[in-house]
Design brief:
This protein has 232 residues and is α/β, with parallel strands linked by helices. Helix content is 35%, strand content 19%. The strands form 2 sheets. It has a 6-stranded parallel beta sheet. Strands 1-2 form a two-stranded antiparallel sheet. Pfam families: Isochorismatase (PF00857). GO terms for molecular function: hydrolase activity.
């Protein structure tokens, strides 16, 4: 099967589609949706809204060539006995963000019937795609992710979602420690933290991945690599 050559930093990357999977991190209503918990708490979700179109194109292209797509989701049920995301040293902070009344609100509410834990429709899984619940920032911590990837012979991960410097970066670091190759799509990851600074947390993570933990590219270059493979 032909490989996929993707233009990336610090160097082009040759991917074997039989060993490559896309990981979608926490693209949930509560984090990034209009009227979601973060939006209601005054967090700027405009950056997240901006990645939805390239993300949707990326997922569609990956499905066309048969790349597996796995979803990571955070537990949005702080009252449940298993919701360990909230049982941390900063648990009260996350509880406040998830509340509907904290902070400066934009006055928006979720669409009818939509819950904070729901994956945004633009990034939603298709039937048969794996969804993994996590209760810490990393998708590998106390989840079956590593076992599932190994079972399917996956050695390269293409990461999208948010937030760039927290759950995406935590997952990239843990993947690196387990000898996966990681490719981060810069325009399909999002970060509300530090977006108003001269150098953002999003940019810092992209640089860190490029220098130490993997490769960075754009959705356009990634899709071009997929398309070129199909046309051979």
């Amino acid at each position: 099967m032909p490989g996929m050559r993707v233009g990336a930093r610090p160097s082009p990357l040759l991917l074997d589609p039989r060993e490559t999977a896309v990981i979608v991190v926490d693209m949930q209503q509560g984090f990034f949706g209009l009227g979601g918990a973060w939006d209601r708490a005054g967090v700027d979700v405009a950056g997240a809204q901006a990645i939805l179109r390239p993300l949707a194109r990326t997922l569609a292209a990956a499905r066309r060539v048969g790349l597996p797509i796995l979803y990571l989701t955070a537990d949005f049920a702080p009252s449940s006995g298993n919701a360990r995301l909230w049982d941390t040293a900063r648990g009260e902070h996350w509880m406040a963000l998830a509340s509907t009344g904290g902070g400066a609100t934009h006055g928006r509410l979720p669409p009818p019937g939509v819950q904070d834990g729901d994956i945004l429709p633009e990034a939603a899984p298709e039937p048969g795609e794996t969804v993994i619940l996590k209760r810490r920032f990393s998708g590998f911590f106390e989840t079956p992710l590593h076992a599932i990837l190994k079972e399917h012979g996956i050695g390269t991960l293409v990461l999208v979602g948010g937030t760039t410097s927290v759950c995406v970066e935590s997952t990239v670091r843990d993947a690196y420690f387990r000898d996966y190759r990681c490719l981060l799509l810069a325009d399909c990851t999002t970060e509300p933290i530090g977006h108003d600074l001269p150098h953002t947390s999003h940019e810092a993570t992209l640089r860190m991945v490029e220098v130490l933990f993997g490769w960075v590219t754009t959705s356009e270059r990634f899709i071009h690599g997929l398309t070129a493979r199909v046309q051979r």
